[in-house]
Amino acid sequence: MAPAATRPWIPPAALVAAQLAHGASWAMLIAFAWPSTPGLSMPSLAWIHTVALGWLTLTALGVLVHVIPGFLDIEWRAEGVARWSLLPFGLGAASLVTGFALSQPLALSVGSGLLLLGLLGFMGPAVATVLSFRPPAGTKAPFRSAFLIVLGALGVAAVLGATMAWALAGAPWGQVLVWLPPLHAVLAGGGWLSLLIIGVSTRTLFPVTGRRRVKHRFHGWVSGGFTVGLGLLLIGLLPGIQHPALRWAGMAAIAMAAVFYCLDTAKLVIGAPNDHKPPIAFVGMTLLYLVAMVLIGLGVTAGHAEWQAALAFVALVGWMGQSVNGYLLHIGIRLLATMVRGDEDETRPGSLLVPALSWTAFGASQVAVIGGTGLLLLGLGQYLPWAGVCGLVGWGALVLNVRLAYLKARQWPQDPAITLTVLAARK
């Protein structure tokens, strides 16, 4: 067997913990239905943060360990600190979710503190690394600005979230629970996760689809529209302002950006030449969920407060969650192969995965997302555990597929043609 890489380019423990949170989120839906009412219960908040923090954000932070230096072509500053900071972050997420699920003030307080500590440990080196990038004279540095925006949104969202968690735990500023939740949700879901997915996809879509790398035609409109739209939406939600016109203007800009993003991405997804189709199918479905998220968001802006639960659901496990699933079946398997076979490995992800399991994961996951969103829109939250069953089946197929891919990757040597290429490169 070939020697494995000494330090994987994405921390594998973060991805494993994130997938455990992914599975736990579906099990939580089976254990208790999520009420489709404007106000969210404590179990509902436990579910939301299991997905948003435990699954999506922990995955994103792990991926950023590779993405930041890869996009900017620079070395990490204090990379070890950034990697190890994911440990207190993960522990904090688990404690916070426990606090919500059991209405336990101490767990809420401790979890919030650990989350902030972990984020501080990650963002310090991350921001220092991004700021150290010096673009060539006369050129722009869009990725540097993009990283600073999404990291800033994450930091502010985390502070607002911790403030609310401490208020729920008994801190003397309970009045913030009236107006902070929507600001926190917009920053975390829009400024952090959505903008990050949009930005990272400008590179990751090409290996997933097998297309030749070209410049995204509408990328400037997409990133600019989302950023401006989120800014207007946030201002329109601020206490003392609360102006409907600003909220509508923000949603209009976000809707425009979503249309341009779908056009850009659809051109790559439709008829993609890569013969490994499941990741492409996952990414294709995210476009439908992005449109659904925007339409439901417009409905909430128009006064349908009862759609808030459906908005959170389709945003988290639809638009964002299926993006993660799609990239896991490509980028995650590439990581696994390099861990087992070494950095020079060129094994194609599709050759390690079982197609039947990939398609089972895809089908069950889409039934869970579409069914769950529909149930919440219709006010039938009591039936949401059925969506949880489908989601758990999809997750189980995904995890089993990754496990089998790992076992297959351990069977050395590789495909003969790839092995000869690698050996020649080493000589």
Written description of the protein model:
This protein is mainly alpha-helical. The protein has helices at 12-31, 42-72, 79-84, 86-102, 105-131, 142-168, 180-209, 219-237, 244-269, 277-301, 308-341, 349-352, 355-377, 384-409, 416-426. The model is unreliable at 1-5 and 416-427 (pLDDT under 50).
Throw out a few tags for this protein:
single chain; 427 residues; mainly alpha; 15 helices; globular; disordered N terminus; disordered C terminus
Structure, briefly:
This protein is an all-alpha fold. The protein contains 15 helices and no strands.
Helical proportion?
Answer: over 70%
| Strand-pairing-aware structural class | mainly alpha
Based on CA atoms alone, the radius of gyration comes out at 21 Å
**Sequence stretches where pLDDT stays below 50 over 5 or more residues:** 1-5, 416-427
> What is the count of DSSP helices, taking H or I runs of 4+ residues?
15
Strand content: under 5%
Distance between the termini: 18 Å
Q: Main sheet?
A: none
Helix-strand pattern: HHHHHHHHHHHHHHH
Count of β-strands: 0
Q: For the residues shown, what is the average pLDDT?
A: 88
* Overall geometric form: globular
